[in-house]
């Protein structure tokens, strides 16, 4: 079955960097578009970034453009979210996403940015 396991969250200060990882299994990762979302309790889940199966195309939310990147390693079945110049408003739970017939989500990883 599809499994997505996020890691790498934590508490950092504004201006710091973090790299989140999402280890995927149970599907053909190298053929799959992958995405990162984030969510604050009580609000809708927001698309942060997505990357095509080959890594040839990426898209970012306006709020993270120029600060975040979404590399992937198909040999390791892992997608990353490299977050630089973090701001307090980036504080959220971050989720890895795969879609095939339905959405699949990981358990999420908490990122907290203090000012």
Question: How would you describe this structure to a colleague?
Answer:
This protein is mainly β. The chain is 0% helix and 51% strand. It is built from no helices and 12 strands. The chain is globular. The protein starts with a strand and ends with a strand.
Please give the count of helices: 0
If you average the pLDDT, what whole number results?
97
The residue ranges in which pLDDT falls below 50 over 5 or more consecutive positions are none
Structural class: mainly beta
Distance between the termini: 40 Å
Helical fraction = under 10%
Question: Strand percentage, roughly?
Answer: over 45%
Task: Kindly list the characteristics that best describe this protein.
115 residues, mainly beta, five-stranded antiparallel beta sheet, 0% helix
Short summary:
Helix content is 0%, strand content 51%. The chain contains no helices and twelve strands. It is globular and about 40 Å long.
Explain the layout of strands and helices.
Layout: E1 3-7, E2 10-13, E3 18-25, E4 34-39, E5 46-51, E6 58-60, E7 68-69, E8 72-73, E9 78-83, E10 92-99, E11 103-105, E12 109-114
